C-alpha cells in the first residue's frame, strides 16, 4: 500500500496549518472550556468552593441588596474579578450557576492557552512544541475545574502570563511599548490576587537589572519609574480605596478580615506549621505544585527550564526574562514562610486539603517549559509526548484533581445545603429579613437561592446596625454559630435583650437558625424602609 | 627519542653474568646514544642513572628469592609507575627488556598504553622442554612440531596467558634466534623480528689463536646442573686419556650448582682429579680471565637458548666443541667456529675434540671465524642500532588478524565460563525444600513462612501450576485455596487465582521435572532461573549489537542478574523475569531488519506479556508502536513524499490472537466467561477459607450462602482497569521506587544508576533503539509509581522495576565499554557494583518478606521488637537465621553457616566482577 503525497500539497497543508493555527488553538480551547463548564455545572460541582460562592455574592451585592454600591467590593479580596462580574451578575442564573464569575475565567483559560502559544512562538519553538505546550496547560483537570468556577486563579494566570510575555518581548526588543503592555497586564494582575504584587516587584527588579546590563545604571531609575507608573497603579488604587472606604490604607492587610488576621488565629491554634519554616514551606508548596500538575509534567518542565537556561540559541535577555514565570513559586513559598498564606497538603501538613490549588499557579510556566523542551529536544519528542500522554491519560481516567478534592472534601468546602435548604424552604415566600454575617456565612447566602436584599449582613450599613441592636424588630431569622464570638452576628446579637424573643428552629454543623417568636411578628419590619443608608 | 624501559628486569648489575648483567649491558649500550633519554624501571638497582636514563627501583635490596608475590608486586608497580611517568613525560617508545623468559613477558603497562606508542618486547629466550619430555618429543620431529607444547608447558610460569596477550599487543617481539621466531609464529605471534643475542665484549681478550698449543687448556662454564650435562664432558676427558692416549690437557670448570659434588666424585672415580679443576662461582667481572687462558671451549648442554658463555667464548676468540642444540646450529649457519656433537653422546664429543686437535689449521680458522662473528654479526653496538629501529616500529597489521582470532577464542571461553558460573550461582541460590508437598503440607509454616512460599504471589502462581498439573483444573480445592489466600478469588462458586495465568503454565515443565526428582517446588522455581539466565544472555547480545563490546555485555548481564533485586526474583516464583525476557526479546527484534515475522512476533509477545502480568500491556506498548512505525517507509523525491506500508504487515496483528484465545479459554474455565478478568465485578476477593472450606470475604458474614454472594457481585459497580494507576500516587511512587530505604534503587542497586550516563553513548549510534529503551524505562517507572502499592507488598527491593534494571544494564554496558580506560570510573563502578552484589545476594539467599517502612510501626506493636525494612533485615536473617537456598538447606548447611554461605556466593560474584572489569580494562576492544 503506497500513499504518494505531492510536496506541493504538503506545502499547502503546512501553510494552512500555520495560517489557522491560532484559530485552531482558540477554537479547541473554547470548546474544551465550554464543555468543562457544562460538565461541572451539570454534576453540581461547579461551585464546590466556598470562596467561589463568596466571590459571586460580592459581585451581586454591588448591584443588588439592602445597600448596593461599589463599597460592597470589600477590603480584602482584590476587586478585578468582582468588577468584571458586574455585566453578568445581575442575572439570577448567571449568579447562581456561577457563570458570571466563570465566564471571565473561561476567557482567561482560552487567553492563557493562546499566550502560552505566543510565548513559545516567540522563543522559536515549532508548531509541535507550541501545541504540546498548550495541550500540557489545557489537559489539566485542576485548571479545567478552576476555569469552570468563580475563583480568581485563572484570571490571575492569564494576566500574569500576558504580563510575563510582554516583559519577555521588552527584554528582547527594548521597545517601550512592550514595557507599557507588560505594565498594563501586571497592573491587572495586582488587582486580581496578591500574587500579582510579587510579580510587580520581581518584574521591576528584572527590568532594573536588564537596563543596567544593556545600558547604564543612570537609566534604571527612569525606566523603572515609567514601568511602575502604570504597573503599580492598581496597588496605589487599592491602598487608596482602603483609605477611602475603611479609613486605613492597610486595612486589606491588617483588618479583621485580612488573611493575616485569619492566619494569626491559625498560628495561635498551632495550625500554621509552615510559618518560619522555610524547608517545610518549600516542601508543602512543591507538593501542591506536583499534585496540581500530576508530577511528571512538572519534572519535564524542570528539565525544559534547565535546557532553556543552557540553550545558547536564545538570547541571554530572553532567558533572563523567563525567570519572571517562576514568580508564583517564589511568592507562594515566601507567603508560607511569613505566615501570610496557608496550604494544607494531606500527609505533609495537616490531615486535609486546604488551598492546595495554589499549586496550579505554575501551570502556564510548566506548559511553556514543556513546550520548549518538546520543541528543542527533537530526538526525544516521541518519548516526551508519548509519556506525557500516558500520564495524562491516567489523570483523566481517574479524574485526578486535587483542586476539586480540596473543594469537595477539604477545608475549602462547606456543605451548607442543609442550612441554605431550610432558608430556601421557609424564607423564600415569607416576608422578613435574615440576619447573617457575610464574612462567616456567604456560602449560605449564596446557596439559599434567595435574593441578596433578603439578607441583613455587615455590609448593609444601618440595617446591620439596627438589626444587631434590636434584632426582633428587623430580623425574622438569624443565622449564626451559637456561642462562637468569631461569628459577628452571635457576637452582637447574643448580648442584646431582643435575642430572647427568638427560638432555635434548626441546628447544623456550620450554623444554627433562629426564628422570631410568633408573638413578636406584628412588630417586625419586613420592608427596606431605611433611607439614606450610606 | 624518549624511551621508557619497563621493566628492565628484577635487577640490574654487571657482576653475575646472568640476565641481570645482559639487561644492564643493553641499557648501558643504548645509553651511549645521547639522543636517547628516558627512564628505567627495575626491581632493584644500585644505580640511579645510566647515561641519560633515570633508573627507578622498586625494592631497597634484591629479594633473596623472587617469589610469586614479588612478581605480582613488581607487575603492579610497573603498571602504575609506568603510567604516572608516561602521563608526565609522554614517551615515544616502551621497551619490555627483561625477564627474557616468554612466560614472564606479562606487562600491564604495555597492555594498557596507547597503541600509538611502539611497545617492544625482547630479547626473548627460546623456551625448551624439561629433560623428562625432551627425548620423547625431539625424537618425534624436533622443536618446530613441539613448540606449541613447549610454550604451553611454559604456561606453568606465572602469568603466561597474560604474557601471551602482552606479546600480541606488542609492536615488535624480539626472539634471539630463528627457532624462537618459529615457535612464536606457531602460537599466533607474528610480529617477531630476530635479533641475535649480544654481550658487551669489552673485558674479553679477543685473542686470535693462530697456533694450537701442545698443552691444551679446556674450559667449560655453566651452572652445574643436570641439563648442562657437564658429566658428559668429564667422561669425554676420560676417553681422551684412555682411548686416544691424550693426556696433555686440563679441564677448568667454572660455575657452581647442585651437581658440583657429584661431578667431583665422577672426576675422582675416573681418576681425573689432577686434570680437572673446579673453580666454583666466578664473578662476571673476573670470568674473562678464565676465557683468556683457555684454548678450547666445550659445552655439552642438552637445552639452552643462546647461552651467554657462547658469546664470552666468541669474544675471547676461542674455538669450540658444542652439543648440537638449536642455538649452536643457528650460529654455525652464520660462521661459528665450532665442532658439534649430538647431545648426550660423550664419545662423539671426545672424537670431535680429538679431530679438532689434530687439525691446527681448522683450530686457527675457528678462532678467526669466532672473532669475526662477534665483530660483524653479534656486535652489541651494531645490534643496538637495529634495536633502536625496532623500538620505534609500530604494530604490524598482520598481528591484528591473528589477534582477532585469538580474541574470538578467548571471548568464547570467557563467555562460556561466565555463563556456567551464572548458572551455578543461580542454582546455588534457588529457594526451595526437597519434596513434593501435598495441599495440606503446603499450609504448614515449613513451606510458607519459613519456606519458599513466604508470600502470596509465589503461592498463588504455584497453586495454579500444581492444581492444573495434578487435576487439569484451574480452580482450587479448599486446602489449596487456604494456601493461596489472601490473594484468592471466588467466582462461579469456585476458588480461583487472582493472578494473570500465563506464568503458572510456563513453569509446568519444571514442575513435572521436579516432581520426577521429588522436588516439584524446586523444579518450578528453577524455571524462573532459566529465564533469568536468558535475560543475561539477551542483555549481553544487545550490548554487543549496540556497542560491539563482549566484555561490556557480560558485565552488564551479570550486573542485571546479580547486582539488582532481579537476583532475588530469579530464585523464587515471580513473573518479573519472564516479563523482562519478553521485553528484551522485543528490543532484540527491534534491533534487526523488520519483516512480517518480526512484527508478528512482536504482537504475539505483546499479548503474551499482558496475560503474564496485566500492566505489561502498557509496558510493551513502546515496542509495539516502534514496530508499527518501522512498518511504514517514507521516501522523499523532488516532488513526492511517498509513504508505503506493506499490506501484509497489517496481517501481523493476528499475532495477538493466539495468546488472547488461550487467555479467554482460561478466563472461561476459571471465572465463567472469556471476558471476565481481575477487576471484573464477577470475581470476589476472598480473605481466607474457614475450617469448613467456605470463603471468608472482607466485611462479609461467614454464613452467607454462595448464591447470595454471587447475587451481590452482580450488583457491584465495575471497577475500571485504569483505576489501579493514579497520578496522585506519582510523588510517593517515585520516592518509594527510587530513593526510599525500603525499596529504592539508590539503596538497593546504585550501580545500575550509572547506566543513565551510558544512554548518551547508545544515542549516538542507535538513536531509535536508545529511544525505545528509554521509553520502556520511563513507562515502567511511571506506571508503577502510579500503582497504589509501589512497594510490591512485602518484597525485597523494587521488584516492579526489574525491566528498568535490564534496560539500564544495557546502557551500563555501553558506558563501561566506552570508558573502559578510565580507571577512576571503573573503580567507582567496582565499588558500587560490589556493594550492589552484596546487598542483592543477601536478598536472594534470605527472604523477600521485607515490610514497607509504613507498616513497620504497626508491625513492631505486634512483634514487640525492632523491625527492619531495608536490606539490613536480610543481613540479619542470614546472620541469625538461615538461608532459604535449596542447595544450602539440602547440603551446604552441614558444612557452612548461612552467613558463610552468603559470603562465599557474594565473594565469588564480586571476584568475577573484578576479573571481568580488569579484563575489560586490558582488552583491545575498540571504543564506540
Strand fraction band of chain A?
A: 5-15%
Low-confidence stretches of chain A: none
Shape of chain B: elongated
Count of helix runs of chain B: 41
For the sheet with most strands of chain B, the description reads:
7 strands, mixed
- Classify the helix fraction of chain B into a percent range: 40-55%
Provide the low-confidence segments of chain B as ranges: 140-146, 701-720
Question: Explain this structure to me?
Answer:
The complex is a heterodimer of chains A (534) and B (928). Chain A is α/β, with parallel strands linked by helices and 534 residues long. Chain A contains 26 helices and eight strands. Chain A has helices at 7-42, 50-63, 80-89, 92-97, 99-122, 127-138, 141-147, 153-173, 176-190, 195-214, 218-231, 233-246, 251-254, 259-268, 278-293, 296-310, 316-321, 327-338, 363-376, 381-397, 402-409, 417-427, 438-448, 462-469, 471-474, 488-493, and strands at 2-6, 344-345, 349-354, 433-436, 455-456, 475-480, 502-507, 512-516. In chain A, the strands form two sheets. Chain A has a five-stranded mixed β-sheet with strand order 5-4-6-8-7. The model of chain B is unreliable at 140-146 and 701-720 (pLDDT under 50). The two termini of chain B are 32 Å apart. In chain B, the strands form five sheets. Chain B has a seven-stranded mixed β-sheet with strand order 5-6-3-1-7-8-9. In chain B, β14, α12 (326-333) and β15 form a beta-alpha-beta unit. With 928 residues, chain B is of the alpha/beta class. Chains A and B meet through β1, α1, α15 and α20 of A and β20, α31 and α35 of B. β1 of chain A pairs antiparallel with β20 of chain B.
Amino acid at each position: 500500500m503506497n500513499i504518494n503525497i505531492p510536496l506541493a500539497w504538503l506545502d499547502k497543508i503546512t501553510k494552512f496549518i500555520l495560517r489557522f493555527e491560532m484559530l485552531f488553538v482558540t477554537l479547541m480551547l473554547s470548546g474544551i472550556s465550554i464543555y468543562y463548564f457544562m460538565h461541572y455545572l451539570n454534576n453540581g460541582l461547579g461551585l464546590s468552593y466556598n470562596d467561589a460562592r463568596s466571590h459571586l455574592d460580592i459581585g451581586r451585592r454591588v448591584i443588588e441588596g439592602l445597600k448596593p454600591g461599589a463599597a460592597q467590593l470589600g477590603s480584602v479580596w482584590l476587586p478585578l474579578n468582582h468588577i468584571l462580574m458586574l455585566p453578568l451578575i445581575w442575572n439570577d442564573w448567571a449568579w447562581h450557576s456561577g457563570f458570571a464569575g466563570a465566564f471571565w475565567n473561561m476567557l482567561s483559560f482560552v487567553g492563557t492557552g493562546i499566550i502560552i502559544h505566543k510565548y513559545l512562538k516567540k522563543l522559536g519553538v515549532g508548531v509541535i512544541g507550541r501545541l504540546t505546550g498548550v495541550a500540557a496547560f489545557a489537559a489539566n483537570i485542576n485548571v479545567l475545574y478552576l476555569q469552570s468556577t468563580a475563583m480568581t486563579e485563572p484570571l490571575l494566570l492569564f494576566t500574569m502570563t500576558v504580563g510575563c510575555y510582554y516583559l519577555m518581548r521588552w527584554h528582547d526588543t527594548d521597545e517601550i511599548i512592550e514595557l507599557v503592555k507588560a505594565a498594563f497586564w501586571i497592573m491587572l494582575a495586582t488587582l486580581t490576587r496578591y500574587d500579582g504584587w510579587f510579580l510587580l516587584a520581581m518584574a521591576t527588579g528584572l527590568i532594573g537589572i536588564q537596563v543596567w546590563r544593556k545600558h547604564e545604571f543612570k537609566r534604571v531609575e527612569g525606566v523603572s519609574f515609567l514601568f511602575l507608573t502604570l504597573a503599580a497603579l492598581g496597588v496605589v488604587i487599592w491602598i487608596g480605596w482602603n483609605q477611602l472606604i475603611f479609613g486605613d490604607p492597610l486595612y486589606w492587610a491588617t483588618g479583621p478580615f485580612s488573611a493575616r488576621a485569619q492566619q494569626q488565629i491559625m498560628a495561635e491554634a498551632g495550625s500554621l506549621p509552615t510559618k518560619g519554616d522555610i524547608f517545610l514551606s518549600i516542601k508543602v508548596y512543591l507538593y501542591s505544585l506536583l499534585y496540581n500538575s500530576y508530577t511528571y509534567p512538572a519534572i519535564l518542565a524542570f528539565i525544559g527550564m534547565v535546557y532553556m537556561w543552557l540553550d545558547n540559541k536564545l538570547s541571554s535577555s530572553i532567558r533572563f526574562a523567563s525567570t519572571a514565570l517562576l514568580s508564583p513559586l517564589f511568592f507562594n513559598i515566601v507567603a508560607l514562610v511569613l505566615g501570610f498564606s496557608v496550604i494544607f497538603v494531606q500527609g505533609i501538613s495537616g490531615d486535609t486539603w486546604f488551598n492546595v490549588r495554589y499549586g496550579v499557579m505554575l501551570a502556564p510556566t510548566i506548559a511553556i517549559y514543556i513546550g520548549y523542551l518538546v520543541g528543542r529536544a527533537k530526538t526525544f519528542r516521541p518519548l516526551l509526548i508519548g509519556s506525557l500522554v500516558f500520564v495524562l491519560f491516567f489523570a483523566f481516567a481517574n479524574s485526578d484533581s486535587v483542586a476539586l478534592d480540596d473543594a469537595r472534601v477539604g477545608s475549602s468546602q462547606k456543605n451548607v445545603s442543609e442550612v441554605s435548604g431550610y432558608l430556601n424552604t421557609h424564607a423564600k415566600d415569607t416576608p422578613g429579613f435574615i440576619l447573617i454575617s457575610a464574612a462567616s456565612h456567604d456560602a449560605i447566602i449564596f446557596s439559599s437561592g434567595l435574593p441578596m436584599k433578603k439578607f441583613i449582613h455587615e455590609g448593609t450599613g444601618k440595617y446591620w446596625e439596627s438589626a444587631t441592636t434590636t434584632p426582633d424588630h428587623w430580623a425574622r431569622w438569624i443565622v449564626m454559630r451559637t456561642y462562637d464570638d468569631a461569628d459577628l452576628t452571635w457576637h452582637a446579637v447574643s448580648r442584646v435583650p431582643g435575642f430572647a424573643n427568638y427560638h432555635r428552629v434548626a441546628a447544623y454543623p456550620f450554623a444554627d437558625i433562629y426564628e422570631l417568636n410568633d408573638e413578636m411578628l406584628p412588630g417586625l419590619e419586613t420592608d427596606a424602609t431605611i433611607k439614606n443608608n450610606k | 627519542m624518549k624511551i621508557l624501559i619497563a621493566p628492565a628486569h628484577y635487577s640490574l648489575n654487571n657482576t653475575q653474568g646472568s640476565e641481570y648483567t645482559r639487561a644492564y649491558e643493553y641499557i648501558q649500550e643504548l645509553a651511549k646514544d645521547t639522543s636517547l633519554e628516558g627512564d628505567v624501571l627495575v626491581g632493584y638497582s644500585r644505580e640511579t642513572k645510566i647515561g641519560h636514563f633515570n633508573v627507578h627501583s622498586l625494592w631497597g635490596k634484591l629479594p633473596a628469592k623472587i617469589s610469586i608475590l614479588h612478581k605480582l608486586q613488581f607487575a603492579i608497580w610497573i603498571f602504575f609507575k609506568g603510567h604516572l611517568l608516561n602521563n608526565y613525560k609522554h614517551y615515544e617508545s616502551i621497551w619490555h627488556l627483561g625477564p627474557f623468559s616468554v612466560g614472564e613477558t606479562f606487562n600491564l603497562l604495555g597492555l594498557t598504553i596507547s597503541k600509538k606508542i611502539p611497545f617492544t618486547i625482547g630479547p626473548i629466550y627460546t623456551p625448551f622442554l624439561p629433560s623428562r619430555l625432551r627425548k620423547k618429543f625431539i625424537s618425534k620431529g624436533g622443536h618446530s612440531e613441539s613448540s606449541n607444547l613447549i610454550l604451553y608447558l611454559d604456561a606453568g610460569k606465572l602469568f603466561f596467558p597474560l604474557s601471551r596477550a602482552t606479546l600480541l599487543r606488542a609492536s615488535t617481539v624480539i626472539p634471539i634466534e630463528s627457532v624462537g621466531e618459529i615457535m612464536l609464529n606457531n602460537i599466533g605471534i607474528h610480529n617477531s623480528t630476530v635479533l641475535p643475542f649480544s654481550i658487551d665484549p669489552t673485558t674479553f681478550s679477543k685473542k686470535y689463536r693462530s697456533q694450537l698449543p701442545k698443552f691444551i687448556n679446556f674450559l667449560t662454564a655453566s651452572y652445574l646442573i643436570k641439563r648442562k650435562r657437564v658429566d658428559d664432558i668429564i667422561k669425554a676427558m676420560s676417553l681422551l686419556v684412555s682411548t686416544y692416549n691424550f693426556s696433555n690437557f686440563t679441564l677448568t670448570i667454572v660455575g657452581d650448582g647442585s651437581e658440583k659434588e657429584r661431578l667431583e666424585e665422577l672426576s675422582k672415580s675416573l681418576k681425573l682429579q689432577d686434570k680437572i679443576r673446579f673453580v666454583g662461582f666466578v664473578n662476571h667481572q673476573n670470568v674473562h680471565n678464565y676465557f683468556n687462558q683457555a684454548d678450547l671451549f666445550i659445552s655439552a648442554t642438552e637445552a639452552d637458548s643462546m647461552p651467554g658463555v657462547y658469546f664470552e667464548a666468541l669474544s675471547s676468540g676461542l674455538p669450540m666443541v658444542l652439543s648440537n642444540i638449536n642455538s649452536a646450529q643457528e650460529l654455525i649457519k652464520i660462521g661459528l667456529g665450532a665442532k658439534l656433537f649430538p647431545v648426550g653422546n660423550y664419545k662423539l664429543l671426545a672424537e670431535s675434540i680429538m679431530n679438532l686437535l689434530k687439525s691446527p689449521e681448522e683450530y686457527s680458522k675457528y678462532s678467526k671465524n669466532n672473532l669475526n662473528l662477534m665483530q660483524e654479526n653479534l656486535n652489541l653496538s651494531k645490534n643496538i642500532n637495529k634495536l633502536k629501529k625496532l623500538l620505534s616500529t609500530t604494530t604490524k597489521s598482520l598481528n591484528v588478524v591473528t589477534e582477532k582470532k585469538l580474541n574470538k577464542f578467548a571471548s568464547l571461553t570467557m563467555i562460556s565460563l561466565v555463563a556456567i558460573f551464572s548458572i551455578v550461582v543461580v542454582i546455588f541460590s534457588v529457594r526451595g525444600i526437597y519434596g513434593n508437598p501435598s495441599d495440606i503440607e503446603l499450609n504448614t509454616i515449613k513451606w510458607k513462612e519459613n519456606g519458599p512460599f513466604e508470600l502470596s504471589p509465589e503461592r498463588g502462581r504455584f497453586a495454579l501450576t500444581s492444581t492444573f498439573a495434578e487435576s487439569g483444573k484451574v480452580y482450587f480445592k479448599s486446602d489449596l485455596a487456604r494456601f493461596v489466600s489472601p490473594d484468592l478469588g471466588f467466582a462461579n462458586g469456585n476458588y480461583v487465582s487472582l493472578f494473570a495465568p500465563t506464568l503458572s503454565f510456563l513453569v509446568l515443565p519444571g514442575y513435572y521435572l521436579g516432581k520426577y526428582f521429588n522436588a516439584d517446588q524446586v523444579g518450578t522455581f528453577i524455571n524462573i532461573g532459566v529465564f533469568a539466565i536468558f535475560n543475561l544472555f539477551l542483555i549481553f547480545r544487545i550490548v554487543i549489537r549496540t556497542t560491539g563490546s563482549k566484555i561490556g555485555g557480560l558485565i552488564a548481564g551479570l550486573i542485571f542478574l546479580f547486582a539488582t533485586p532481579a537476583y532475588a526474583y530469579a530464585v523464587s516464583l515471580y513473573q518479573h523475569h519472564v516479563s523482562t525476557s519478553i521485553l528484551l526479546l522485543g528490543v532484540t527484534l527491534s534491533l534487526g531488519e523488520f519483516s512480517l515475522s518480526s512484527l508478528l512476533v512482536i504482537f504475539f509477545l505483546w499479548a503474551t506479556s499482558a496475560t503474564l502480568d496485566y500492566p505489561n500491556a502498557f509496558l510493551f506498548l513502546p515496542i509495539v508502536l516502534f514496530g508499527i512505525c518501522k512498518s511504514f517507509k517514507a521516501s522523499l523525491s523532488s516532488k513526492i513524499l511517498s509513504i508505503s506500508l506493506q499490506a501484509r504487515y497489517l496481517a501481523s496483528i493476528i499475532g495477538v490472537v493466539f495468546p488472547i484465545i488461550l487467555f479467554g479459554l482460561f478466563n472461561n474455565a476459571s471465572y465463567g466467561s472469556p471476558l471476565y478478568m481481575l477487576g471484573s465485578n464477577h470475581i470476589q476477593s476472598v480473605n481466607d477459607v474457614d475450617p469448613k472450606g467456605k470463603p471468608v470475604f472482607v466485611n462479609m458474614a461467614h454464613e452467607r450462602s454462595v448464591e447470595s454472594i454471587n447475587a451481590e457481585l452482580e450488583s457491584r459497580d465495575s471497577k475500571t482497569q485504569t483505576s489501579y494507576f493514579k497520578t496522585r500516587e506519582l510523588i510517593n511512587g517515585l520516592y518509594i521506587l527510587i530513593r526510599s530505604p525500603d525499596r529504592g534503587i539508590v539503596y538497593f542497586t546504585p550501580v545500575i544508576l550509572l547506566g543513565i550516563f551510558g544512554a548518551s553513548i547508545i544515542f549516538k549510534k542507535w538513536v531509535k533503539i536508545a529511544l525505545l529503551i528509554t521509553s520502556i524505562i520511563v513507562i515502567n517507572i511511571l506506571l508503577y509509581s502510579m500503582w497504589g502499592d509501589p512497594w510490591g507488598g512485602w518484597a525485597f527491593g523494587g521488584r516492579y522495576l526489574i525491566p528498568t534494571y535490564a534496560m539500564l544494564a544495557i546502557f551500563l554496558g555501553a558506558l563501561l565499554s566506552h570508558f573502559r580506560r578510565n580507571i577512576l570510573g571503573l573503580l567507582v563502578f567496582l565499588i558500587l557494583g560490589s556493594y550492589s552484589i552484596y546487598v542483592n545476594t543477601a536478598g536472594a539467599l534470605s527472604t523477600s518478606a521485607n515490610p514497607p517502612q509504613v507498616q513497620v510501626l504497626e508491625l513492631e506493636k505486634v512483634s514487640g521488637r525492632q523491625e527492619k525494612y531495608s536490606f539490613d533485615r536480610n543481613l540479619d536473617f542470614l546472620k541469625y537465621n538461615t538461608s532459604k537456598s535449596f542447595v544450602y538447606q539440602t547440603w551446604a548447611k552441614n558444612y557452612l553457616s548461612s552467613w558463610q554461605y552468603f559470603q562465599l556466593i557474594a565473594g565469588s560474584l564480586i571476584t568475577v566482577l573484578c576479573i571481568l572489569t580488569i579484563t575489560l580494562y586490558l582488552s583491545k576492544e575498540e571504543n564506540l
